[in-house]
Amino acid sequence: MRFLGNFVRAIDGLNDLIGRGVAWLVIPMVVITFLVATLRYGFAIGWVSMQESYMWLYGIMFMVGAGYTLLHGGHVRVDVIYRPASARYKAWVDLFGSLFLLMPVIIMILMYSYPYVVTSWHRLEGSHETGGLPGLFLYKSVILVFCVLMLLQGLSLAARSVLVLAGHKEFEISEEEHEGV
Protein backbone atom coordinates (compact mmCIF):
# COMPACT_ATOMS: atom_id res chain seq x y z
CA MET A 1 0.00 0.00 0.00
CA ARG A 2 2.94 2.32 0.59
CA PHE A 3 3.86 1.99 -3.09
CA LEU A 4 0.32 2.97 -4.14
CA GLY A 5 0.41 5.99 -1.84
CA ASN A 6 3.75 7.14 -3.25
CA PHE A 7 2.49 6.54 -6.79
CA VAL A 8 -0.64 8.63 -6.18
CA ARG A 9 1.38 11.48 -4.65
CA ALA A 10 3.93 11.44 -7.50
CA ILE A 11 1.39 11.43 -10.34
CA ASP A 12 -0.87 13.97 -8.64
CA GLY A 13 2.15 16.20 -8.04
CA LEU A 14 3.28 15.85 -11.66
CA ASN A 15 -0.12 16.71 -13.13
CA ASP A 16 -0.59 19.56 -10.66
CA LEU A 17 2.77 21.05 -11.62
CA ILE A 18 2.13 20.63 -15.36
CA GLY A 19 -1.40 22.03 -15.08
CA ARG A 20 -0.24 25.11 -13.21
CA GLY A 21 2.54 25.55 -15.76
CA VAL A 22 0.35 25.38 -18.88
CA ALA A 23 -2.15 27.74 -17.25
CA TRP A 24 0.39 30.49 -17.94
CA LEU A 25 -0.25 30.00 -21.66
CA VAL A 26 -3.45 31.99 -21.16
CA ILE A 27 -1.46 35.22 -21.00
CA PRO A 28 0.25 35.01 -24.41
CA MET A 29 -2.95 33.55 -25.87
CA VAL A 30 -4.98 36.57 -24.75
CA VAL A 31 -2.31 39.04 -25.88
CA ILE A 32 -2.02 37.42 -29.32
CA THR A 33 -5.81 37.26 -29.71
CA PHE A 34 -6.04 40.95 -28.81
CA LEU A 35 -3.30 41.79 -31.33
CA VAL A 36 -4.95 39.73 -34.09
CA ALA A 37 -8.29 41.47 -33.55
CA THR A 38 -6.74 44.95 -33.24
CA LEU A 39 -4.55 44.54 -36.32
CA ARG A 40 -7.31 43.00 -38.41
CA TYR A 41 -10.15 45.37 -37.56
CA GLY A 42 -8.13 48.48 -36.76
CA PHE A 43 -5.47 48.35 -39.48
CA ALA A 44 -6.66 45.67 -41.96
CA ILE A 45 -3.47 43.66 -41.31
CA GLY A 46 -3.42 39.93 -40.66
CA TRP A 47 -1.01 37.04 -40.49
CA VAL A 48 -2.11 33.43 -40.62
CA SER A 49 0.78 32.37 -38.39
CA MET A 50 -0.38 34.77 -35.69
CA GLN A 51 -3.93 33.42 -35.86
CA GLU A 52 -2.69 29.83 -35.72
CA SER A 53 -0.44 30.60 -32.76
CA TYR A 54 -3.28 31.42 -30.36
CA MET A 55 -5.23 28.38 -31.54
CA TRP A 56 -2.18 26.19 -30.94
CA LEU A 57 -1.68 27.70 -27.49
CA TYR A 58 -5.29 26.97 -26.64
CA GLY A 59 -4.97 23.39 -27.87
CA ILE A 60 -1.79 22.82 -25.89
CA MET A 61 -3.33 24.29 -22.75
CA PHE A 62 -6.49 22.21 -23.12
CA MET A 63 -4.80 18.90 -23.96
CA VAL A 64 -1.84 19.09 -21.57
CA GLY A 65 -4.02 20.46 -18.77
CA ALA A 66 -6.61 17.66 -18.98
CA GLY A 67 -4.80 15.54 -16.38
CA TYR A 68 -4.78 18.51 -13.99
CA THR A 69 -8.51 18.93 -14.56
CA LEU A 70 -9.13 15.25 -13.81
CA LEU A 71 -7.00 15.52 -10.67
CA HIS A 72 -9.11 18.39 -9.37
CA GLY A 73 -12.49 16.91 -10.35
CA GLY A 74 -13.19 19.36 -13.14
CA HIS A 75 -14.43 16.86 -15.71
CA VAL A 76 -18.12 16.14 -16.23
CA ARG A 77 -19.85 14.01 -13.59
CA VAL A 78 -23.39 13.50 -12.44
CA ASP A 79 -22.88 15.63 -9.33
CA VAL A 80 -26.46 15.14 -8.14
CA ILE A 81 -25.52 11.54 -7.31
CA TYR A 82 -21.76 11.84 -6.76
CA ARG A 83 -21.36 14.96 -4.62
CA PRO A 84 -23.49 13.96 -1.58
CA ALA A 85 -22.28 10.33 -1.66
CA SER A 86 -19.96 8.74 0.90
CA ALA A 87 -16.21 8.56 0.32
CA ARG A 88 -16.51 4.80 -0.15
CA TYR A 89 -19.21 5.15 -2.84
CA LYS A 90 -17.13 7.82 -4.61
CA ALA A 91 -14.11 5.50 -4.51
CA TRP A 92 -16.11 2.70 -6.17
CA VAL A 93 -17.42 5.10 -8.85
CA ASP A 94 -13.93 6.49 -9.48
CA LEU A 95 -12.38 3.02 -9.63
CA PHE A 96 -15.00 1.74 -12.06
CA GLY A 97 -14.91 4.92 -14.13
CA SER A 98 -11.11 4.93 -14.35
CA LEU A 99 -10.68 1.28 -15.26
CA PHE A 100 -13.69 0.70 -17.51
CA LEU A 101 -14.46 4.09 -19.03
CA LEU A 102 -11.48 6.46 -18.96
CA MET A 103 -8.59 4.11 -19.63
CA PRO A 104 -10.13 2.16 -22.56
CA VAL A 105 -11.04 5.43 -24.30
CA ILE A 106 -7.61 6.95 -23.74
CA ILE A 107 -5.87 3.75 -24.89
CA MET A 108 -8.00 3.77 -28.05
CA ILE A 109 -7.13 7.43 -28.68
CA LEU A 110 -3.45 6.56 -28.17
CA MET A 111 -3.60 3.58 -30.54
CA TYR A 112 -5.29 5.55 -33.31
CA SER A 113 -3.33 8.77 -32.90
CA TYR A 114 0.16 7.27 -32.66
CA PRO A 115 0.43 6.44 -36.41
CA TYR A 116 -1.09 9.83 -37.22
CA VAL A 117 1.59 11.61 -35.18
CA VAL A 118 4.42 9.40 -36.50
CA THR A 119 3.36 10.11 -40.10
CA SER A 120 3.37 13.82 -39.32
CA TRP A 121 6.91 13.52 -37.89
CA HIS A 122 8.14 11.60 -40.95
CA ARG A 123 6.87 14.39 -43.19
CA LEU A 124 8.00 17.14 -40.79
CA GLU A 125 4.53 18.47 -41.45
CA GLY A 126 3.87 22.17 -41.34
CA SER A 127 0.71 24.21 -41.55
CA HIS A 128 -1.50 23.60 -44.55
CA GLU A 129 -2.19 27.32 -44.77
CA THR A 130 0.04 29.65 -46.74
CA GLY A 131 2.02 31.67 -44.23
CA GLY A 132 1.06 29.30 -41.41
CA LEU A 133 3.28 28.00 -38.64
CA PRO A 134 5.89 25.35 -39.35
CA GLY A 135 6.16 22.42 -36.96
CA LEU A 136 2.62 21.07 -37.07
CA PHE A 137 4.20 17.69 -36.25
CA LEU A 138 5.24 19.11 -32.86
CA TYR A 139 1.73 20.36 -32.20
CA LYS A 140 0.23 16.99 -33.12
CA SER A 141 2.57 15.35 -30.60
CA VAL A 142 0.54 17.02 -27.87
CA ILE A 143 -2.11 14.33 -28.50
CA LEU A 144 0.34 11.70 -27.22
CA VAL A 145 1.26 13.87 -24.23
CA PHE A 146 -2.46 14.18 -23.47
CA CYS A 147 -2.88 10.40 -23.57
CA VAL A 148 0.10 9.73 -21.30
CA LEU A 149 -0.91 12.35 -18.71
CA MET A 150 -4.54 11.18 -18.70
CA LEU A 151 -3.53 7.53 -18.38
CA LEU A 152 -1.23 8.35 -15.49
CA GLN A 153 -3.92 10.41 -13.77
CA GLY A 154 -6.47 7.64 -14.38
CA LEU A 155 -4.11 5.14 -12.77
CA SER A 156 -3.60 7.54 -9.88
CA LEU A 157 -7.36 7.93 -9.46
CA ALA A 158 -7.80 4.14 -9.48
CA ALA A 159 -4.96 3.69 -6.97
CA ARG A 160 -6.41 6.44 -4.76
CA SER A 161 -9.77 4.66 -4.87
CA VAL A 162 -8.18 1.37 -3.81
CA LEU A 163 -6.48 3.16 -0.92
CA VAL A 164 -9.75 4.76 0.18
CA LEU A 165 -11.53 1.40 -0.03
CA ALA A 166 -8.72 -0.10 2.07
CA GLY A 167 -9.44 2.48 4.79
CA HIS A 168 -6.72 5.08 4.17
CA LYS A 169 -8.72 8.23 4.94
CA GLU A 170 -5.84 10.55 4.04
CA PHE A 171 -6.50 9.76 0.35
CA GLU A 172 -10.14 10.83 0.43
CA ILE A 173 -10.66 13.89 -1.75
CA SER A 174 -12.26 16.82 0.06
CA GLU A 175 -14.61 19.33 -1.57
CA GLU A 176 -11.95 22.05 -1.17
CA GLU A 177 -9.52 20.02 -3.29
CA HIS A 178 -12.12 19.60 -6.04
CA GLU A 179 -12.94 23.29 -6.07
CA GLY A 180 -9.28 24.20 -6.68
CA VAL A 181 -9.83 24.10 -10.45
Plain-language structure description:
With 181 residues, this protein is mainly α. Helices cover 75% and strands 0% of the residues. The protein has helices at 2-22, 26-43, 48-64, 66-71, 79-82, 87-123, 136-140, 142-165, 175-178.
Write a compact overview of the structure shown.
The protein is mainly α. It contains nine helices and no strands.
Rg of Cα set: 20 Å
Query: Strand count, sense and closure of the main sheet?
Result: none
Low-confidence stretches: none
**Dominant shape:** elongated
Order of helices and strands: HHHHHHHHH
Keywords:
181 residues, mainly alpha, 9 helices, 75% helix
Strands, helices and their partners?
Blueprint: H1 2-22, H2 26-43, H3 48-64, H4 66-71, H5 79-82, H6 87-123, H7 136-140, H8 142-165, H9 175-178
Helix pairs in contact: 1-8, 2-3, 3-8, 6-8
